[in-house]
Amino acid sequence: MKTILHSSASRGTADHGWLKTAHTFSFAGYYNPERVHYGVLRVLNDDWIAGGTGFGKHPHDNMEIVTIPLTGALEHQDSMGNKEVLRMGEVQAMSAGTGVFHSEYNASATEPCSLLQIWIIPERRGVEPRYEQRFYDVAKLEQEWHTVVNPMDQGGAMPIHQQAWFSLTKIPQGTQRNYAAKREGNGVYFFVIEGSASIAGLDLGARDGLGVSELSDIPVAAASDAFILAMDVPLRLPTIA
Fold first, then answer.
1. pLDDT at residue 26, rounded to an integer
2. Per residue in 157-213, pLDDT tens?
3. CATH number of the domain to which 200 belongs
4. What is the DSSP string of 67-84?
5. Is residue 239 part of a domain?
6. Which of 23, 107, 227, 231 has CB atoms 3.0–4.6 Å from 27's, for a disulfide?
7. Domain residue limits at 174
8. Which residues, 6+ apart, have CB-to-CB distance to 172 below 8 Å?
9. CA 112 to CA 241: how far, in whole Å?
């Protein structure tokens, strides 16, 4: 078993007034040569956006971008003609592919919203840009590791162009719910959204992250009521032109 622990306090942070953000991996003004990516997991941003504000139109290409709202509502618009509002209980995936412009604004003029924005390096470049958002079964988080993102050819959850699975769960204090790795050669990056847990024998609190590899059945025990995201991703970067 191999592990890599990233405590909440060790993340890069920025406070722009309207935006408060923490970067697990190097992003924008935060650069740490030892924290550039975890396999194909390139960006894990923990964002808080004030009411009536947001990110203006900006470009992306050749990246799979997954957004998981935690509180409030986020309004998305893009150059493909999509205009949607995203709320807790939904997940959004955008394949930037050959290139796309989009904007993201807090849908409320007064109430803040918060979200996780995650970038995944795709298994191939130059795909046609696409956008989708879906509801998932929030009740299932209380019962299982509920998969909300999976590879394009799998069906079921939100598809992305990579052999990666994202699963969410809520584990009551004092109980254990092991995570079964989806694919040989992948690592699993856990992010504790709320609460605290012991994962692979290491103690994590809210907003701590832990990468675990070379272990197929990963023990996860809640020290307090815990809300956790598991990102099961290839560790080897794709060989793409």
1. 98
2. 999 999 999 999 999 999 999 999 999 999 999 999 999 999 999 999 999 999 999
3. 2.60.120.10
4. EEEEESEEEEEETTS-EE
5. no
6. 23
7. 2-234
8. 222, 225
9. 41
